[in-house]
Amino acid sequence: MKKIILDYKxxxxxxxxANVCPEVFGWDSKSSEPFLKNGSKKERxxxxxxTDEPCAEEAARLCPVAAIEIVNPKKK
Length: 76
Ligand code: SF4
Fold this sequence. Notes:
Blueprint: E1 2-7, H1 16-20, E2 25-28, E3 33-36, E4 46-51, H2 54-62, E5 68-71
The structure holds iron/sulfur cluster.
């Protein structure tokens, strides 16, 4: 499992991650910002989740402001 961390302080609210990887990222239309499905709630400006979805890395790579960090990429 990889851990992904979403940094709301960097996030530009572009919605790309929710489009690229809807399995992991949702879009909160009330606050106009992404959230992590099956992840922690936004707390102190970040949220985190664990996932095996390859598209999470794609979203991290494509995020225009590098607000998505992948840590501990462990191979199974
Ligand atoms: S792609 Fe990056 S900047 Fe855009 S909503 Fe997702 S985390 Fe925020």
